[in-house]
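#struct-pred

JT: dropping the chains for the assembly here, can someone run the whole complex?
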Amino acid sequence: MAYSDKVIDHYSNPRNVGTLDKSKKNVGTGLVGAPECGDVMRLQIEVDEATNTITDAKFKTFGCGSAIASSSLATEWLKGKTVDEALAIDNMEIVEELALPPVKIHCSVLAEDAIKSAISDYRVKNGLPALELAHH
Amino acid sequence: MLKLPIYLDNNATTPLDPRVLEAMMPYLTDVFGNAASRNHPFGWAAEEGVDYARTQIAQLIGCDSKEIIFTSGATEGDNLGIKGVFEMYAQKGNHVITTTTEHKAVLDTCKHLEKIGGRVTYLPVDELGLISLADLEAAMTPETILVTIMYGNNETGTIQPIREIAAIAHKHGALFMTDGTQAVGKIPVDVNADGIDIMAFTAHKMYGPKGVGALYVRRKNPRVKVTAQMDGGGHERGMRSGTLNVPGIVGFGKACELARLEMAADAARLSVMRDRLQTELMQLEESYVNGSVEHRLPHVANISFKYVEGEGLMMGIKDLAVSSGSACTSASLEPSYVLKALGLSDDLAHSSLRFGLSRFTTDEQIDYAINHVKEAVTKLREMSPLWEMHKEGIDLSKIEWAEH
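RK: done, full complex below.
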């Protein structure tokens, strides 16, 4: 399969690989996917509680090049956004940016799920109700 | 200077040996006759080439040249052997025994038999990919007409106990057929010593051209016949009609001659290289060899790297042409049924790589492959949440995954 240059770039030079301290109250962690399906994404955000802004984002992904690129791109986009802005990220924006082919759209869906799941975790930690996550 | 990418997918196909091409060239140009043309020198010359090739091929597997039926390849050979026996011996019975790890050319042919009144037993394999002889013995019935079990597996290289299998089949009055595609030309295969009645094999796995193969059909003790699956001019003793692919056959013959002369030296050299590749890659934690190490083709290694996803791994080793146990690349998420039959979990099957070395593989290429795979696996594990969890001692099987 031919990968787009952007996928190859993110795969070869992934941004923001790593782990944030999940015990911290202002860190939200999302873990989505399953090993049997061939994709597991863990995406973490660190939020400045005063401004409700995401100051840091990290990921680790087990998956194909498109899954790695989708999560890498997501962390780039998350930094500097407010939590509400982050919630508005749609998987189709990832598809467009990375020029993902139809068989790889699920990678972008997973990245969107990971973002929402991380935000939900952050909300729960701070006494807010969990987000209702769509299950794909 | 190392030329990239490096080809280590020789179980899929091998490059053409230049000496084979040289033998074929006259038959692609001046000697263009139809081997079945009996009335003029053009036909005679073509027939002479075919006859010589038949002898070269027969010598490699220890049979008589009359026992070679030319086909378009091993898939056709498997079809002709299995369907041909099923039809020819219908009065005797309708039961066929095979294994779950056969090539699709055998499995799907057996499935076809089931649709037309056949009964098929698919023997399971153990974690090394070997069948149990006791299972085979227990599966034999008076209606069993054919046992068809591959010689060496295309994914793992595991070699079945062919002689013991043949003995059991014969004891119960059944014929023994083997798919010799991966084994012939790589290890000694002798149809008489091994007790083989029918065997499909092909040129392009042993440095010959694509599009030509052979079916060995025993002519005495017992005399075996298969019903033709293609109607026409009655070529190949009536078992396979169709104008012979003369240049392909001549190339196949040359490839067999080279294999007979060079197989021992090639196998000795390749097994040393393969073992070095395997030993080095097994230094990576959580890597596993799939299939039998003891009973294995000398040029094959199939290794899984846990906590790394197969397609991601393939992308990381783009300078290596190998096969993956993950069929993701072909747009299906099903992992290899062969590896699953060995008891591998889906994720371990997905993260496997099959290395197939050839006569043309060099030590320098193996060095590159070792480093390239090690780097890719290490990098991907650093990026893998599963690897991190494993390192923290978390049991991944206990996690409730949000499947999507």
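JT: nice. The beta strands of chain A are 27-34, 39-48, 53-62. Chain A touches chain B at residues 1, 3, 11, 14, 17, 19, 31-42, 60-65, 67-68, 103, 106, 109-110, 113, 117, 135-136 (CB under 8 Å).
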